[in-house]
Amino acid sequence: ESMSEVNLMLGDCLERMKEIPDGSISMILTDPPYGMDLTPQRVTGKFKGVKIKNDDSLDWCDSFFNECYRVTSKNSASMFFCNHHCVSEFIASAKAAGFIIKNLIVWNKGHFGMGGNWRPVHELVLICSKGRLVTHSNSLKTIIDFKKVHHSKAVHPTEKPVSILEHLISQPDYDPEVILDPFMGSGSTGVACQNLNRDFIGIEMDEGYFNIAQERIGGGNNAVQ
Questions:
Q1: Is the pLDDT of residue 74 over 90?
Q2: How large is the greatest C-alpha to C-alpha distance in the chain, in angstroms?
Q3: Strand-pair category, 122-130 with 100-108
Q4: Is 64 within 8 Å of 89 (Cβ atoms)?
C-alpha cells in the first residue's frame, strides 16, 4: 500500500496555487494549455469538438510562472510540456519569473498527429530550474522516445503517457518528494507519482476531468473541493 499523499484541488490554478506555501513544492510537472484554441478535429474521434478550457490565449503565462517560481523549493526542477505555439511565451515568462532555462527536450511520440504541412511527431518539454539542477545520469539525451497514448485509450484529448511522466520525475538527483501539476487533466502525473511513491498535488478546473483524476489516483479522501 502506497503511503504517498494526494491532494486534489478543483478550480483555477492561478487561484488555488495561492493556497500553496512558498518553497513547499519539490518539482512541477505539467502540461499547460498551448494557446492553440484547440478543438480536436479527428472526425471519427471521441474528442471531436471537445474544447480545452482556457486554451484561447496565453495571457495567464506571466502570473502562472511567477506562482510556479514562488511555490518551488530552491535547487528544484520544473518541467512544462509545450510546442511551437507556446514555447516562446513559456520561455519568456519562465525567465521573467526567475527560472533558469536548463533545456528543451524533444519528446518523439513515434507516429504523427493531425495537421497539414509538417505534421507533428513530437512535443517539447521545457526544463527549468530554480537554482541548481543535477540529474542522476550524465547520459541523458535531448530526444526521448515514448509512444503517445492511443486515442482509443485516452480519457483526455492531450493525455500524456504515464511512462514519460515517470521518466521525467525520476531524473533530478535530489529525488523530488512533492510534485505539483497545476493543469492535471485526467491525473496522469498523479498516477506516475503514486507509482514512484511521491506525494502529489493536482489542480484542475474542469470538473469532469477532476472527477476522472480522483478515480484514477484514488485520492478521494484527501480531495479538497
A1: yes
A2: 49
A3: antiparallel
A4: no
For residue 34, the tally of other CB atoms under 10 A from its CB is: 21
Q: What amino acid is encoded at 16 in this protein?
A: R
Give Cα 225 to chain centroid, integer Å.
21
**43-56 tens-digit pLDDT:** 555 545 555 555 56
Q: How far apart are CA 90 and CA 94, in angstroms?
A: 6
Residues linked to residue 98 through DSSP beta bridges, in sequence order: none
- E runs forming strands in 35-187: 72-82, 100-108, 122-130, 143-145, 178-181
**3-class secondary structure, 190:** helix
Q: Would the pTM count as exceeding 0.85?
A: yes
Q: Give the β-pairing of 72-82 and 100-108.
A: unpaired
Q: Dump pLDDT digits (tens) for 102-115.
A: 999 999 998 877 77
Instruction: Give residue for cell 519569473.
Output: 97
Beta bridge pairs of residue 70: none
Q: Give one DSSP letter per residue of 160-181, joined into a string.
A: PPHHHHHHHHT-BTT--SEEEE
